[in-house]
């Protein structure tokens, strides 16, 4: 709704914008479904063109509508929860003036594998950062390898997590990585944004040096 409201020059909560969505829904041109939500507050909804809506678009403009972004993200992240978290992360970063790439290319490590970032953002000061969206931990050795690869690219780690439970899991895993691979973790600084945090005005709610020995 934010992008549509911006194009129309209206508030996202404007009554006529809400009415427009309702009219499209009643006409069978769009569908709505609850999105899985792991944060707080009102759960977001996923809106797509229906088959009738896609046909009407083709009738009006003579071309096929683009694939919904949520479906492109689903193909990339493999779950609706992870895809939603990526969208929420973009919204947070954009609030602080970042230009966000939701579909960044893998980063090659000169024959030593590659890193597939969730998000790449260019901050207002020109700093280009890799942002990982983290919900759960699994596959211990594979995950430890992931953080070692991240550290080979940058010593500044940036994360967006949905809630305190995910924050705790991520912190535990990163501490474990630092304990098992201190050479890799040396000099790493964590920056974490927790979506459910009620602290406003801060992009990174938690910043600290991870540790490790040089």
Characterize this entry briefly.
The chain has 214 residues and is α+β, with helices and mostly antiparallel strands.
SSE layout and pairing:
Elements (H helix, E strand, L loop, with lengths): L1 H7 L6 H12 L3 E5 L10 E5 L1 H11 L7 H9 L2 H16 L3 E3 L5 E2 L5 E2 L3 E4 L5 E6 L6 H14 L2 E6 L2 H17 L1 H4 L2 E7 L11 E6 L3
Parallel strand pairs: 7-8, 8-9
Antiparallel strand pairs: 1-2, 3-6, 4-5, 6-7, 9-10
Helix pairs in contact: 4-5, 6-7
Structure write-up:
It contains eight helices and ten strands. It is an alpha+beta fold. It has a six-stranded mixed beta sheet with strand order 3-6-7-8-9-10. A two-stranded antiparallel sheet has the order 1-2. It is elongated and about 60 Å long. The protein starts with a helix and ends with a strand. The mean pLDDT is 89.
What helical percentage do the residues reach?
40-55%
Strand order of the largest sheet: 3-6-7-8-9-10
Strand content: 15-25%
* Cα radius of gyration in angstroms: 20 Å
Unreliable stretches covering 5 or more consecutive residues:
none
**What's the mean pLDDT score?**
89
- Characterize the biggest β-sheet: 6 strands, mixed
End-to-end Cα distance, whole Å, is: 48 Å
Structural class: alpha+beta
How do the SSEs run, as a string of H and E? HHEEHHHEEEEEHEHHEE
Anisotropy-based shape: elongated
Number of strands: 10
Q: Supply the number of helical segments.
A: 8
């Amino acid at each position: 709704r934010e992008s549509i409201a911006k194009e129309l020059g209206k508030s996202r909560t404007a009554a006529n914008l809400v009415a427009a969505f309702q009219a499209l829904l009643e006409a069978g041109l769009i569908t709505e479904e609850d999105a899985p939500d792991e944060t707080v507050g009102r759960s977001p909804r996923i809106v797509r063109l229906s088959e009738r809506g896609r046909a009407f678009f083709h009738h009006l403009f003579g071309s096929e509508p683009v694939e919904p972004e949520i479906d492109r993200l689903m193909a990339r992240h493999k779950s609706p929860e992870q895809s939603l978290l990526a969208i929420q992360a973009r919204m947070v970063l954009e609030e602080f003036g970042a230009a966000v790439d939701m579909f960044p290319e893998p980063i090659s490590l000169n024959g030593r594998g590659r890193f597939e970032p969730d998000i790449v953002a260019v901050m207002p000061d020109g700093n280009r950062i890799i942002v990982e969206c983290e919900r759960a931990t699994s596959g211990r050795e594979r995950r430890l390898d992931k953080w070692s690869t991240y550290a080979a690219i940058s010593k500044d780690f940036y994360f967006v997590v949905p809630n305190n439970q995910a924050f705790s899991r991520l912190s535990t895993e990163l501490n474990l990585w630092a304990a098992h691979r201190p050479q890799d973790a040396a000099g790493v600084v964590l920056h974490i944004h927790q979506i459910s945090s009620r602290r406003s005005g801060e992009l990174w709610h938690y910043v600290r040096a991870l540790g490790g020995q040089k």
